[in-house]
Amino acid sequence: MKVTQITPGRFHHFHLARQMQKHGLLDKIFTGYPKFKLKDESGIPLEKIKTFPWVQTPYMKRSLLGLDKYDKINKEWIWLLVQTLDKYAAKSIKTRGVLTALSSNGLHSGRKMQSLGGIYICDRGSSHISFQNEILANEYERWGFKWIGIDERILEKEQEEYLLADYITIPSQFVMDSFIQKGIDKNKLKKIPYGARLDRFKKIGDPVKNKFRVLWVGGVSLRKGFMYALNAFKEFKHPNKEFIVIGHVSREIKSLIERENLENVIFKGIVANSQLLEYYSCSDVFLLTSLEEGLAMVQGEALACGCPIIATPNTGSQDLITNDKEGFIVPIRNSNSIIDCFQKIVDSPNLRNEMSYNALEKVQSLGGWDTYGENYKSLIELAIKESHLSL
User: Fold this and answer.
1) Contact 203, 305 (CB under 8 A)
2) Ranges for the Glycosyl transferase family domain (predicted)?
3) Taking the mean position of all CA atoms in its chain, how far away is CA 58?
């Protein structure tokens, strides 16, 4: 039995597709990305990439058209995206196999695959969608913003997928706990942590002496808890500190930092992957304070470059590091805990070097995307065995 995948963007699904191809299991991968944007996706035959770019591509370019500020338009756009890609894939599925679809993109295609006697795996990259909606609503309220909420149609669709799916793949214990809290049967949940691109990320330098550099890579948003990170950096006492922020800054954060003292905070915007190696390698610590996500892959990138991590458990960090060994795990919404971690690194000259060494050891033991592929292959074999089907 072959594997069909559905994903509107790249996310981790193209890493999975490479692994499925490597194991001789990939049938095709449906995506909203245009094919010309996927030429660098080596290891996947182009004929196995089925694109449906008519909704996703203009959505990606909406900021250039000045449409990204219209919440109602974006809401309808996202709903159209998840429905059209899902239905397009459903019409294309003709034979029994294994379907793994990114959540909210697999209800129709999952039903189609099951009607043919196949297996449907819902792949969820973040916490349970209701948990996600609730924690973000609370966070927006804390900072004085209105949370428009996840589209009720998508909330309903995803939760139908959770019930319909034979299995739900998730990347971290944090995500698993959110599903169990919402009443999903633990036996349906299969935790498969993501890997890191060990071929792309490696240690190429060391931090500058007599300077304390904190690095942020990823979306700069309320969801990522950026203001707690910024407040910790501002309150931390050090004569030569620097906060490098790489990533797109959300509207909410832009409005909040207008009133902030941003001395020694350097916003770099979007930076190419090829340049991230130097930032990771030459920073004293990588900081990620998310309120909610699945398993932030930037953490694996930092580890692969020997950069210790300070992260909340809601980033999936507990599936990557051990507290006080490769970095620190701190509570959400807690700037004081972050400051304490900064101080420990500064007060112990050898601690950063020890953590850097441990980070390199740990990321090698995690095995990169090959381990992820092996684990996913094992799940597929288990699913087929339990369904009394054959490969």
Assistant:
1) yes
2) 202-360
3) 22
Strands (E) in the chain, as ranges, are 3-7, 26-31, 49-51, 98-102, 119-123, 167-170, 189-191, 212-217, 241-246, 265-269, 285-288, 309-311, 327-329
Phi first, then psi: what are they for 263, rounded to 5°? Answer: -60, 130
pLDDT digits (tens, 9 = 90+) for 76-129: 888 999 999 999 999 999 999 999 999 999 999 999 999 999 999 999 999 999
Residues 98/383, Cβ–Cβ less than 8 Å: yes
What's the CA gap between 299 and 290, in Å, rounded?
Answer: 12
How far is 3 from 169, CA to CA, in rounded Å? Answer: 14
Does residue 92 contact residue 34 with C-beta atoms inside 8 Å? no
The token pair at 28 is 């095709």
pLDDT at 58 over 80: no
Judge whether residue 198 has pLDDT over 90: no
Q: pLDDT digit string (tens) for 126-138? A: 999 999 999 999 9
**Can you tell me which residue has the tokens 């698993």?**
176
CA distance 14 to 11: 7
pTM score > 0.90 for this model? yes
Residue type, 299: Q
Tokens of 168: 């739900």
Q: Can you name the residues that pair with 123 across neighbouring β-strands?
A: 102, 169
- Neighbour count for residue 211 (Cβ, 10 Å): 14
Does residue 181 contact residue 128 with C-beta atoms inside 8 Å?
yes
Torsion of CA 345, 312, 297, 322, to 10 degrees: 60
Pairing, β 285-288 against β 265-269: unpaired
- Residue 133 tokens, joined: 């909606």
Q: What angle do CA 384, 100, 27 make, to 5 degrees?
A: 80
Domains and CATH numbers, the chain: 3-195+369-386 (3.40.50.2000), 212-366 (3.40.50.2000)
Which helix (H) or strand (E) covers residue 80, if one does?
helix 71-92
Q: In what order do the strands lie in the sheet with 241-246?
A: 265-269, 241-246, 212-217, 285-288, 309-311, 327-329
Check if the beta carbon of residue 271 is closer than 8 Å to that of residue 279: yes
